[in-house]
């Protein structure tokens, strides 16, 4: 922990304001203050950062490299201040200047270099690795434009580019010495020598990631793409300005924008090039660092563990073999063996539309040398396993990256117990039979520093009062809260903390959306990417049924609810965008219906991101985790809610299963089919139709939606959606509807007893310790990376 005084901090902030920003205090804007505070905090991280690097060199420790196309970081300043223990001191220093720290914090744009859960997991992992003192690097792409900004126009999603780098990014250091040439295309000669036709330069930009109490910091190294040659001066001087700048434009497109697809595979050439760009730059960097310390290549697997976050960096297998053979002169068998012992693969989804594959034609054109290497890996693979053609890496002219990643990995992990079981029994069943020890489970987690201590200071104080300080690095200690489950004072403190968060959120929606919501109503929250398998539609249908029932019988004893939605749809995902529009359409009708006053509201703030999650999750009473069983690999939003004392209504899917085990079945609203029942249900012809015919309520809902109650000026708007629900319903909304609706009645009844509700909330918080990403990272270190902690040796 930094023990720097308030006076010293004040002096440093002044110094940066004047000499780094060139601003005279009376003229400093909030932006200037943010920059000055950020540089001040960054300076304090540099010391533990250097110390961590020195320590790793001295100990000759194994380093962990986390390769990910996405890092969904969010804001950095507040997290760094919290981890350094300086949040309150900085607030006081700024207060003396008449500046509010919250204004400074909110001036920072989110670093949104990811789509959703997968990218956020990578960010939580980096923070936990630093907290645990695990030497490591995150490798990613420095997208100029992160995930698009979402607006609603007439209820429809409109995307605009995000431009976080438009302002100075005060956290990064450019590393002019770390630059690598990344080859593409061209041809491979008969001697096996690759003659690339295009090259781009990868340049490193480092951001330190500091752990709890500032004891260790690792590096997030993001690669920016630059032209290998400056522009063509001759052409420029001859007046052909556009052509002269063409190589530069071409190179820059590589790190220009994050692909906004989540759980789908777009199969575009630029995406393949981005994946190779990240992977090759990272591997060249890893080998350079290794060679600077060791001569003996056979030590590589003892000093280097590489984690592939999903298949996006799965070209790492062939690329590492290429570098070891073509550039470092090793033979095939040795190179392949070394590569395989360094590499590991995390699978994040079993949805067939998300399993990456590239046509052999495209792979052969963009990466001709790798195509040859892949074919040779495939021959070895077939010889070793005698597998059927469908189990080969290359099948029907497609390179299947999941199989490639599996074959080239030491360990392959799923992200929840259920997901790992399904990996073994479905998509990877044959490979699992050949390599029975390769698939292991590492249930996801989230960092409690950002998702509890930072996001929910009120509840954090209640926890510290009850169980003492230090739980932030040892989250299992939350179990100690169970001894207070019959202590009315503690339960009331939990209630008051929630109530304060709800008031703060109501004030925010009033300011931002001009919508008033009652902090005493139940806040029922579903925030996540909009996807059919996540079943926002199930929630929407229940909302329509509730609206209809309230209209029919307004004086019944309704539990007031605010349905809160948040989330973006991939720009090309038509059904998801239709669901967004439907939510906004029903919101207009419901919120303007006098009969709903004090009973039901629907709010959908646009542009869900990490910062919105931090604001909303602490204010939630009910967490909607309602995906079709077997479809959500883990979920991590579910864990953040539990940690913050929301109760879950959910299916037995992903990590919900383990959350329910840890908080106790009585403290969780379970509904719906199991994964096995889902599989059986799919076998039933016309499963949706028969479910609908058995549910009068669902029939009514579908009729109301189809009749255009929520879209009077375009009555046919939702005909397609309703038709699909009757006839296709690929995620079994209809089949789970009655079970969900009935569970929602239980939720209403439970909320009416506030004392018991908050007791249940306390049990949820107490059971959340397992879902710290510190636990997950310990699992990776012990079971996969075999890496040692070099930081502090606290628990
Ligand atoms: C945690 C998080 C997610 C993942 O949420 P799920 O409910 O697990 O899909 C997505 N986006 C953001 C901004 C998050 O913070």
From TrEMBL:
Xref: SUPFAM superfamilies: UDP-Glycosyltransferase/glycogen phosphorylase
Cofactors named for this entry: pyridoxal 5'-phosphate
Membrane-traversing stretches: none
Gene Ontology CC terms: cytoplasm
Primary enzyme class: transferase
Task performed by this protein: Phosphorylase is an important allosteric enzyme in carbohydrate metabolism. Enzymes from different sources differ in their regulatory mechanisms and in their natural substrates. However, all known phosphorylases share catalytic and structural properties. Allosteric enzyme that catalyzes the rate-limiting step in glycogen catabolism, the phosphorolytic cleavage of glycogen to produce glucose-1-phosphate, and plays a central role in maintaining cellular and organismal glucose homeostasis.
PROSITE patterns linked to this entry: PHOSPHORYLASE (PS00102)
Protein name: Alpha-1,4 glucan phosphorylase
Residues modified to N6-(pyridoxal phosphate)lysine: 640
Keywords, ordered alphabetically: Carbohydrate metabolism, Glycosyltransferase, Pyridoxal phosphate, Transferase
Record bears the keyword Transferase: yes
Catalytic activity: [(1->4)-alpha-D-glucosyl](n) + phosphate = [(1->4)-alpha-D-glucosyl](n-1) + alpha-D-glucose 1-phosphate
GO MF terms, alphabetically ordered: glycogen phosphorylase activity; pyridoxal phosphate binding
Protein family according to the UniProt entry: Belongs to the glycogen phosphorylase family.
EC annotation from Swiss-Prot or TrEMBL: 2.4.1.1
Gene Ontology terms: biological process: glycogen catabolic process
Family matches, as InterPro entries: Glycg_phsphrylas, Glyco_trans_35, Pyridoxal_P_attach_site
């Amino acid at each position: 922990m930094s023990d720097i005084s308030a006076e010293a901090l004040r002096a440093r902030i002044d110094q940066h304001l004047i000499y780094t920003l060139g601003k005279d205090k009376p003229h400093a804007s909030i932006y200037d203050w943010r920059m000055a505070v950020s540089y001040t905090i960054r300076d304090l991280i540099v010391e533990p950062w250097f110390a961590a690097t020195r320590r790793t060199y001295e100990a000759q420790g194994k380093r962990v490299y986390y390769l990910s196309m996405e890092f969904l970081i969010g804001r950095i300043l507040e997290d760094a201040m919290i981890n350094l223990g300086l949040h309150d001191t900085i607030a006081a220093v700024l207060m003396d200047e008449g500046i509010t720290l919250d204004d400074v914090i909110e001036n920072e744009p989110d670093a949104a270099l990811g789509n959703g859960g997968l990218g956020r997991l990578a960010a939580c992992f980096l923070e936990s690795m630093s907290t645990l003192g695990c030497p490591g690097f995150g490798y990613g792409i420095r997208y100029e434009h992160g995930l698009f900004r979402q607006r609603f126009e007439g209820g429809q999603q409109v995307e605009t580019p995000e431009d976080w780098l438009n302002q100075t990014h005060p956290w990064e250091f450019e590393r002019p010495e770390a630059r690598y040439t990344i080859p593409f295309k061209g041809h491979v000669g008969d001697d096996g020598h690759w003659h690339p036709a295009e090259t781009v330069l990868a340049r490193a930009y480092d951001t330190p990631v500091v752990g709890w109490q500032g004891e260790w910091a690792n590096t997030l190294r993001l690669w920016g793409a630059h032209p290998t040659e400056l522009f063509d001066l001759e052409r420029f001087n001859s007046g052909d300005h556009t052509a002269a700048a063409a190589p530069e434009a071409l190179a820059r497109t590589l790190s220009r924008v994050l692909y906004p697809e989540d759980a789908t595979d777009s199969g575009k050439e630029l995406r393949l090039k981005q994946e190779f760009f990240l992977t090759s730059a990272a591997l060249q960097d890893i080998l350079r660092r290794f060679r600077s310390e060791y001569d003996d290549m056979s030590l590589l697997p003892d000093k280097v563990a590489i984690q592939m976050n999903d298949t996006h960096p799965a070209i790492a297998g062939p690329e590492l073999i290429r570098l070891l053979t073509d550039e470092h002169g090793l033979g095939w068998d040795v190179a392949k063996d070394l590569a395989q012992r360094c590499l590991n693969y995390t699978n994040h989804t079993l949805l067939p539309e998300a399993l990456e594959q590239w046509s052999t034609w495209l792979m052969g054109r963009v990466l001709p040398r790798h195509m040859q290497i892949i074919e040779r890996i495939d021959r070895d693979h077939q010889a070793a396993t005698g597998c059927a053609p469908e189990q080969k890496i290359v099948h029907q002219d497609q390179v299947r990256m999941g199989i490639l990643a599996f074959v080239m990995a030491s360990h392959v992990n799923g992200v929840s117990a259920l997901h790992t079981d399904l990996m073994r029994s479905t998509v990877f069943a044959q490979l699992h039979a050949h390599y029975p020890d390769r698939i292991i489970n590492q249930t996801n987690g989230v960092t409690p520093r950002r998702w509890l201590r930072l996001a929910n200071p009120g509840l954090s104080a209640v926890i510290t009062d009850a169980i003492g300080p230090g739980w932030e690095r040892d989250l299992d200690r939350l179990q100690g809260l169970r001894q207070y489950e019959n202590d009315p004072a503690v339960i009331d403190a939990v209630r008051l903390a929630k109530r304060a968060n709800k008031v703060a959120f109501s004030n925010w929606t009033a300011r931002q959306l001009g919508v008033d919501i009652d902090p005493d109503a139940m806040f029922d929250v579903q925030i996540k990417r909009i996807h059919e398998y996540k079943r926002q539609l199930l929630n929407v249908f229940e909302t329509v049924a509730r609206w209809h029932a309230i209209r029919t019988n307004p004086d019944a004893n309704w539990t007031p609810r605010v349905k809160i939605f948040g989330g973006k749809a991939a720009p090309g995902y038509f059904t998801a965008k239709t669901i967004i529009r439907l939510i906004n359409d029903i919101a207009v009708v419901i919120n303007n219906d006098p009969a709903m006053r004090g009973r039901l509201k629907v709010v959908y703030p646009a542009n869900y991101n990490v910062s919105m999650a931090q604001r909303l999750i602490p204010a939630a009473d009910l967490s909607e985790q309602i995906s079709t069983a077997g479809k959500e690999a883990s979920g991590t939003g579910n864990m953040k809610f539990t940690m913050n004392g929301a109760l879950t209504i959910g299916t037995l899917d992903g990590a919900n299963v383990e959350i329910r085990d840890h908080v106790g079945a009585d403290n969780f609203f379970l509904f719906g089919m199991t994964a096995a029942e889902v599989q059986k249900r799919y076998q039933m012809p016309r499963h949706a139709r028969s479910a609908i015919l058995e549910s009068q309520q669902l029939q009514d809902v579908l009729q109301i939606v189809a009749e255009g109650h929520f879209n009077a000026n375009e009555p046919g708007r939702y005909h397609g959606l309703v038709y699909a629900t009757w006839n296709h319903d690929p995620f079994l909304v209809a089949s789970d509807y009655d079970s969900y609706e009935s569970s929602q009645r239980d939720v209403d009844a439970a909320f009416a007893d506030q004392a018991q509700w908050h007791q249940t909330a306390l049990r949820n918080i107490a059971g959340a310790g397992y879902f710290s990403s510190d636990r997950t990272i310990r699992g990776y270190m012990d079971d996969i990376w075999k890496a040692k902690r070099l930081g502090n040796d606290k628990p």
